[in-house]
Design goal:
The protein has 270 residues and is an all-alpha fold. The protein contains 13 helices and no strands. The longest helix is centred in the N-terminal third of the chain and has 27 residues.
């Protein structure tokens, strides 16, 4: 997935609190998808491994996730080349055609399966596939799973929070993330803490509230420190956290204060 995010700036924070489609710098449902599905850094080997296991709808979605991460990786390499003057013309745009084609196939496959039998696992992954396409029907699928008592109920709650965030903006998703914070699922809880800290920073930037921005960085640093020995998706989140903390510290603008924040929670220094 994309690593270091752009400097946030007040104009971004204002956009982040508005309608969907404007908060590109904040982690989106695409980021959640890649972090939750990817337990190790993407490579051609892990991409091939995921493709080999892509028989089921969930397996195909995991493969599409790895493919999307690889698309991001290739885009980052192209951006570096562009920044160094190795390419002419406009900046390269990330190409999601491959991964999204698989996502559309998964949605069609799972739609047919859920008409025959409403299995919570398939319903959750159908919701995710629809959400990745920006389809409002994702909420119906997530809500139906979240109301049940299956192992996917908590995942559906988080999926709904992510969809609300992307479609309606940060403020509209807060109550849904607070529901996820009550879960015992370690990854879901950690991811909700991650997004709430980003939202907190955006509100602080929008209101020019330095104390709130500092609090948000502290929240992320504390979460990073708690994930030092994490594995699987939590380890993926831990890797992303390091880059995000750096980006927010740069935006915050006080390097010495940022170092003190990290030290106070036992996180790695910049």
């Amino acid at each position: 997935m994309s690593t270091l995010r752009p400097k946030i700036a007040l104009s971004f924070a204002l956009a982040a609190l508005g309608l969907a489609g404007t908060a590109h710098a904040l982690p989106s449902i695409q980021d959640y998808w890649r972090i939750s599905c990817t337990g190790e850094p993407v490579s051609e080997k892990t991409l091939a491994k995921a493709q080999a296991k892509s028989d089921s709808g969930a397996g195909k979605l995991a493969y599409a996730c790895q493919l999307s991460a690889m698309e991001s990786k290739r885009h980052e390499a192209a951006m570096v080349k562009f920044a160094e003057g190795g390419s002419k013309g406009a900046a390269p745009v990330v190409n999601r055609n491959g991964s999204m084609a698989v996502v559309k196939q998964v949605a069609a496959q799972l739609e047919a399966q859920t008409k025959q039998k409403k299995d919570p696992k398939n319903m959750y992954y159908l919701g995710l596939a629809l959400a990745l396409q920006g389809d409002d029907w994702a909420v119906n699928k997530f809500d139906e799973v979240a109301r049940g008592d299956s192992d996917y109920a908590g995942d559906a709650e988080l999926g709904m929070a992510e969809f609300y965030f992307d479609k309606k903006g940060a403020a509209a998703s807060v109550d849904q993330y607070k529901k996820v914070l009550k879960q015992k699922n370690k990854f879901n809880n950690a991811y909700a803490r991650y997004k709430m800290a980003w939202i907190n920073y955006a509100f602080g930037a929008q209101g020019k509230n330095r104390a709130q921005q500092k609090s948000a960085i502290t929240q992320l640093a504390s979460l990073s420190a708690s994930l030092k020995k994490a594995k699987g998706p939590e380890a993926s989140l831990a890797r992303v956290l390091k880059d995000d903390i750096l980006a927010l510290c740069v935006d915050y603008g006080d390097q010495a204060d940022a170092q003190r924040i990290l030290q106070s929670v036992g996180a790695a220094p910049l």
